Amino acid sequence: MGPTILVGLGGSGGWQALAWAVDEATATGGRLVICHAAAPDNPLALRVPTPPLAVLELFDPPLARAVASTRRRLGSDRVTLQVLPGRPGPLLASAAARADLVVIGSPARHRPGGYGSTAHHVAARAPGPLVVVRPITAGPDAPMLGHVVVGVDDSGDCDAALDFAFDWADRHRCVLAAVHVATQHREDYWFDQTTLSTHFSAMPAGLELLSGQVEPWMHKYPQVPVKCAVFGGRPVPGLMRAAHGARLLVVGDHGRGRLGPAGRIVLGSVAHGVLDHATGPVAVVRQAPRQGEPK
Predict the structure, then answer these.
(1) What's the N-to-C CA distance of the chain in angstroms?
(2) I need a surface site. Which of 75, 121, 142, 254 has the fewest CB within 10 A?
(3) Helices 269-277 and 235-243, axial angle in degrees (round to 10)
């Protein structure tokens, strides 16, 4: 049986998230749980969590059409609708514990630092991978166009992100680009592990780090074409430059649910930054805690 995919429908980018989640359920054979948060005074919130389509059509025709279309594509037995009263962030964060993957729309651009957005709330609390969907934009400078880009740092905590990225690239038949961002470099370099072609005049030190971290996954997924790249600058701008035009950007979350200002649970700084500034879909994958760390 395939994975359980939870998708938040409503708010900023909800319909794009649903389309992405349906494609993922199709590719994986998984089941889809559509979660819709209703205001307390919404008539749907006063009914059972899974209202029949006739009731949906009466109170929320667009939602009813979306559910009907999704069931036609995946089959009624693979699509569940949950209409629950409350705020989207807490509802999705709670439901995420019962899902293998959570998919939501992008955070509202007007929120400074993303605090208070559904995307940031869920990303800081979901125990599994979260995909935040926004349309892919690509200009003339898109070095990894159509690739899966995965960020790799020197922390040694990238296994979960690499596993997710390689598995996704394998399933969707994409080229994978493993990217390390180094502040000491001013230029960008990459090496194609499949064609053995280089795009630099001298071997940057970061490529050795990348090769060592990527090698086990290349053996596990030998059919996935791989590029290793070192981009110069600060982590978030470097990853944004690398992922411009990418089909998916995958980053690990090293925040580990730590508390920030005012007692908020916060993301790691890189995960937080890419959620705000990415130009396409982003997967945030939480690394399993080390021994002795809180889960």
Answers:
(1) 27
(2) 75
(3) 40
